[in-house]
Write a structure and sequence with these properties.
The complex is a heterodimer of chains A (109) and B (205). Chain A is an all-alpha fold and 109 residues long. Chain A is 68% helix and 0% strand. With 205 residues, chain B is mainly α. In chain B, helix 1 (2-12) packs antiparallel against helix 2 (15-51) and helix 4 (67-92) packs antiparallel against helix 7. Chain B is elongated and about 60 Å long. Classes of the chains: A mainly alpha (109), B mainly alpha (205). The interface between A and B is large, with 57 and 56 residues.
Chain lengths: 109, 205
């Protein structure tokens, strides 16, 4: 993220290397195969499966941010991260709030 | 932010670098757009999760979803996220042909994804599962369709960018455009992972 700020002269630093892209790609494949195998073969209880696949999805998100989007690099990194945190806050409020109200607090369901 | 940019322009860098800071500011602006897109998708996910049991006597997720196609779509999109990263890498090495090549590969993979998704939608509609059938399907088509629309827009954008790169080569401006497009593409991949998890995997388990 924010890579253009690195463009003063040497362009190699801070854009990630082929190695980091390959590691990111392998991790994202592994993090996709695990939930697929667990769900398709009914390997765990319902709660266990939901917890596992959500954790895998969040890890996948972190992998993409870290290895592909280079979130922590560049001069705008702190702005990127603060925008991301704010979006995450709204996201959690909207999603968790909606589920909480609609699933558990409706009198006339 | 504006202050620090002005400071950079006035004190530390020449004219050229002032232009450079503007490009990085535009990348930040695009990032903020992506964050608002996160909220849009968040709302659609919330709607889907709330409505997914409301099938109105129509087909359920378990009856409708065919995982082989979805798994293929997932790996195609994951690979295209990787190849768009390779495009950025080639760009920073100054290799224009490689950059255009990886963008073209990303485009083909993205187009394959859309083809599979549209085929899936058409099959569902032919089975009588339309957007108007039930609350579950309204939520499903809106969420997955919005993601597909984003990917389709990305494809058009990618063609435009390839043409511009052929014409102008790698400049500060086209560089920023490639970076922004690649961010968009990685972002769509992340959204798809959550679609796979919340819609498909939780639907068939």
């Amino acid at each position: 993220m924010g890579q253009p700020t690195h463009g003063h002269g040497g362009h190699e630093g801070g854009h990630g290397s082929l190695k980091s892209y390959v590691i990111g790609f392998i991790l994202s494949i592994v993090l996709t195969i695990i939930p697929l195998v667990v769900v398709m073969n009914d390997m765990m209880s319902k709660t266990g499966t939901i917890t596992l696949i959500l954790i895998m999805a969040v890890l996948q998100f972190v992998v993409q941010l870290w290895f592909f989007m280079h979130l922590k690099e560049g001069e705008n990194a702190k702005w990127n991260i603060s925008a991301l945190l704010f979006a995450a806050l709204i996201l959690i409020l909207v999603v968790a709030g909606s589920i909480w109200i609609m699933e558990y607090n409706m009198v006339a369901h | 932010m504006a202050k620090s940019v002005a400071h950079h322009q006035a004190d530390q860098h020449g004219h050229d670098h002032g232009h450079h800071d503007l490009e990085s500011l535009k990348t930040l602006g695009f990032w903020i757009f992506l964050m608002t897109d996160v909220i849009i998708f968040g709302c659609l996910f919330a709607v889907y999760v709330v409505l997914r049991e409301n099938t109105a006597g129509g087909p359920t997720a378990e009856e409708l979803f065919k995982m082989p196609g979805v798994i293929a779509e997932t790996f195609i999109l994951l690979t295209s996220s990787f190849t768009s990263g390779l495009a950025v890498l080639a760009m920073h090495k100054g290799k224009l042909n490689q950059l255009i090549g990886w963008l073209a590969v990303t485009f083909v993979l993205g187009a394959a994804f859309i083809y599979l998704e549209v085929a899936e939608f058409i099959e569902m509609v032919n089975e009588g599962a339309t957007i108007a059938t039930s609350g579950f399907l309204s939520g499903f088509f809106t969420l997955v369709g919005t993601h597909g629309l984003h990917v389709s827009i990305g494809l058009v954008w990618m063609i435009g960018l390839i043409l511009q790169l052929r014409k102008r080569g790698i400049t500060n401006v086209t560089k920023r455009k490639v970076e922004v497009l690649s961010l968009y593409w990685h972002f769509l991949d992340v959204v798809w992972i959550f679609v796979l998890t919340v819609v498909y995997l939780m639907g068939v388990m």
